[in-house]
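Project outcomes to date are best conveyed with an example. Our students and postdoctoral researchers have been running inverse folding experiments weekly, and each run begins with a structure described purely in tokens. The record below, which covers 199 residues, was selected by the lab manager from last quarter's runs and is presented without edits.
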């Protein structure tokens, strides 16, 4: 099995949409981590595992047109989506290449290496919390489950009829209201380091 095939959520258009929704949900937290880490105008940034380009385009906004961002991902479909989205957003200083991190080579130097939802050490962490009458956020775990649904059915865990994916977000919200539940979405962990000035 190749490393690309090993990604359990796959590379479908549905998964690309889920990643875009995830990007919007986590954008403010990610931007805060980047600012704390010192990402600033004029820097050159490498985004590892860029997916559909959310982190790359965010970094591009922070470094501005005098900076540059290169996003790499092993999935050609994700790279193509990232390119299209960057073009639609008018972000000309972010580019994308298909590459596996294990074999990626470049002569270019970078001021910063970024990545989201990769396992760094715990240095700073935050998570969105979902609760109350507004149903925002329930679509995120449902989107993950929707992408995993073929695998869930294939392995006999549950059927599509049992899960009833189209009503799941509404049912989760109703359950949370009745039982006063709070849902914590995925934690965003930020870690960074910097070379001493002049190096």
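After processing, the design step wrote out the following sequence:
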């Amino acid at each position: 099995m190749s490393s690309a095939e090993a990604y359990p959520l796959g590379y479908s258009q549905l998964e690309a949409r889920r990643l875009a929704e995830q990007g919007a949900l986590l954008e403010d937290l990610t931007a805060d981590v980047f600012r704390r880490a010192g990402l600033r105008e004029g820097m050159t940034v490498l985004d590892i595992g860029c997916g559909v380009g959310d982190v790359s385009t965010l970094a591009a906004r922070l470094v501005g047109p005098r900076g540059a961002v290169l996003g790499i991902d092993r999935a050609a479909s994700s790279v193509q989506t990232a390119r299209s989205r960057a073009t639609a957003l008018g972000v000309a200083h972010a580019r994308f290449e298909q590459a596996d991190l294990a074999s990626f080579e470049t002569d270019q130097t970078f001021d910063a290496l970024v990545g989201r939802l990769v396992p760094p050490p715990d240095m700073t962490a935050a998570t969105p919390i979902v609760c109350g009458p507004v149903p925002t956020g329930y679509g995120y775990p449902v989107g993950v489950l929707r992408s995993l649904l073929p695998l869930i059915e294939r392995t006999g865990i549950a059927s599509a009829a049992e899960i009833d994916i189209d009503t799941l977000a509404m049912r989760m919200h109703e359950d949370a209201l009745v039982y006063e539940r709070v849902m914590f979405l995925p934690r965003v962990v930020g870690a960074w380091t910097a070379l001493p000035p002049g190096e």
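The first strand starts at residue 44 and ends at 48. The chain has two domains: 13-119, 132-181. The training component of this project remains on track.
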